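Continuing the series of single-chain predictions for the mutant panel. This is the parent chain; the variants come on the following pages.
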Amino acid sequence: MKKSGKVKLVLPSIKYSRAYLKAFKEFEKAGEKTALGVHIPLYTPKDFGPYFKKAREKRNGINIAKGRVPSTLYWAIVGNKVVGRVDIRHKLNKGLRVIGGHIGYTVVPSERQKGYGTQMLARALPLAKKLGIKNALITCDASNIGSKKIIESNGGKLINQVKYKKISRLRYKIKL
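Parent structure:
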């Protein structure tokens, strides 16, 4: 693992919009559409108005699509660079109990294996606790060794392994 800087989690803001746009394009180029958080295409800094609005609405439980839950999106920042994103779901629905859980996170492809994912989850856990979550459910693909290590290094205890659409998912609990 390469040496990494200290991660801070911030709400999406214009201050880091250019840095996020670079990260967004990297996710998109890697074909990782689910890594984007708020599903609004971003191509120029002018596109951030609707993005910020949608993130605010999700955080406040406004205009949420059927089957979705309120969630708070954070950008993971090191210096002035966006290295990933974290999505904290305020509650779980039936689907999130199987896959997804309370906290989803992803690291920008070029920033992986630097310890950022571990720091991101560590910073997200107290934020989840502030939302009243007592036992955070975190899931990952069984084949994702990096994510498994991130969850376990943050105190994750394996609950079980489930199959979802032919993919084996590991379900962990972290007591907050």
